[in-house]
């Protein structure tokens, strides 16, 4: 793991009562967030997630209490200065519409007086980090990009001045489910590289368990119902509210807790455009494969033809399959199943942080994991019955 560049966050008796309201939106909250961790805030609409988040960068002023970042009490700091050291990402990316991508990303560095060369270098680095090709996107306007691409720029912009803390308010709420999984996996990869402290607000408990080292479950008035790791919360919901909130999600929770990197992958045979089909088929047969993956210079998948399809041409064709299903090591088994279903395929390709194909995961593997977990769960139940019984007779 990289050095932690994030800072801890502490909320100490923080209250927010909006003017003209009878009850506080957030009643006295105490919270410790460890440096280098991702914490996900979840809870029903109106429970105070956004209010709590915005008090950390003082877009909303607390009515009472103190907030520390590292060991700095930031409650008395100049809010504009403070916000230069805290990245902030909102749902639709929040980009300035009339500014190019590079102008958006350079916004805070310009305020901080960085020179042009340093800003340009930082912009290249960040675009690459969030998985966008700098030459293609540097001069684009936000309106000429997809929602997912805009969201990636939003993350790059928030990271521009290398802040120790990143706050994200439902950043992936407005994109389709497959893009959402990709963005989540990018965020996990970025976090592995940078080790910032990230607070992310989401409506979705599954997203919270996937992203959060810890999950904070809030109810109305910013009341903490439970704060713990996803495993702790799923194994031991603190109360009826939490149980209800995680609800039916809990049955499939194992699929969320188990990551692609935790299960065995099938090796894949790769080939490049223009390779001799006969040579590739021989290599695939020797490896016992019935299909291959055509990859580009960076090892990213282009298509995955069967050997029969390969045999119809003398050389590997330059066809690009637009629906090639891929997952990252940090994807959950649930994400993997979703991608298979969306592409109507019995498997997915596994890629590394930069998109290069490293193997494949088949539906058979996923099903075997589910069956294993179901029988483990049943064995646990039997054990409980058995020990109850022996206690009863002792
Ligand atoms: N400026 C304001 N003035 C008065 N009340 C407000 C203001 N902003 C928010 N509230 C109230 O404070 C409570 C918490 O709002 P907040 O936006 O923090 O909720 P949330 O958990 O982020 O909800 P959602 O999931 O819908 O985004 C709500 O009851 C809301 O109506
Ligand atoms: Mg909100």
From TrEMBL:
It comes from the Bacteria. InterPro entries: AAA+_ATPase, ABC_transporter-like_ATP-bd, ABC_transporter-like_CS, CBS_dom, CBS_dom_sf, P-loop_NTPase. The keyword Ubl conjugation does not apply. It holds the Pfam family ABC_tran. Residues 9-246 form the ABC transporter domain. Keywords: ATP-binding, CBS domain, Nucleotide-binding, Transport. GO terms for molecular function: ABC-type quaternary ammonium compound transporting activity; ATP binding; ATP hydrolysis activity. It is an enzyme of class 7 (translocase). Its EC number is 7.6.2.9. Residues 320-377 form the CBS domain. Belongs to the ABC transporter superfamily. This is ABC-type quaternary amine transporter.
């Amino acid at each position: 793991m990289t050095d932690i560049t994030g800072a801890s966050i502490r909320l100490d008796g923080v209250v927010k009562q909006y003017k003209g309201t009878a009850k506080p939106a957030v009643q006295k909250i105490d919270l410790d967030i460890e440096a280098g961790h991702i914490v996900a805030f979840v809870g029903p609409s109106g429970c105070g997630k956004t209010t709590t988040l915005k008090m950390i960068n003082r877009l909303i002023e607390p009515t009472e209490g103190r907030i520390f970042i590292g060991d700095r009490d930031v409650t008395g700091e100049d809010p504009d200065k403070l916000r230069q050291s805290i990245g902030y990402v909102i749902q639709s990316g929040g980009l300035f519409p009339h500014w190019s991508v590079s102008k958006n990303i350079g916004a805070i560095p310009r305020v901080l007086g960085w020179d042009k060369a340093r800003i340009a270098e930082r912009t290249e680095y960040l675009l690459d980090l969030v998985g966008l090709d700098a030459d293609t996107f540097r001069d684009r306007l936000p309106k000429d990009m997809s929602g997912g691409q805009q969201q990636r720029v939003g993350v790059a912009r928030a990271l521009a001045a290398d802040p120790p803390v990143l706050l994200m308010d439902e950043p992936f709420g407005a994109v389709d489910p497959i893009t959402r999984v990709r963005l989540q996996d990018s965020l996990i990869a970025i976090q592995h590289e940078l080790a910032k402290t990230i607070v992310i607000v989401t409506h979705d408990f599954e997203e919270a368990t996937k992203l959060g080292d810890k999950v904070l479950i809030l109810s109305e008035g910013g009341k903490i119902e439970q704060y713990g790791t996803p495993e702790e919360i799923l194994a031991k919901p603190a109360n009826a509210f939490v149980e209800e909130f995680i609800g039916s999600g809990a049955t499939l929770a194992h699929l969320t807790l188990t990551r692609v990197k935790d299960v065995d992958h099938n090796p894949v045979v790769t080939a490049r455009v223009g390779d001799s089909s006969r040579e590739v088929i021989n290599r695939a047969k020797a490896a016992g494969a019935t299909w291959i993956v055509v990859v580009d210079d960076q090892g990213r998948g282009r298509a995955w033809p069967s050997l029969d399809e390969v045999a119809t041409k003398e050389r590997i064709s330059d066809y690009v399959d637009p629906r090639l299903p891929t997952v990252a090591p940090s994807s959950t088994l649930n994400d993997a199943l979703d991608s298979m279903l969306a592409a109507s395929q019995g498997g997915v390709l596994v890629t590394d942080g930069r998109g290069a194909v490293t193997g494949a995961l088949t539906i058979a593997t996923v099903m075997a994991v589910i069956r294993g977990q179901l029988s483990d769960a049943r064995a646990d139940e039997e054990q409980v019955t058995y020990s109850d019984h022996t206690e009863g007779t002792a």
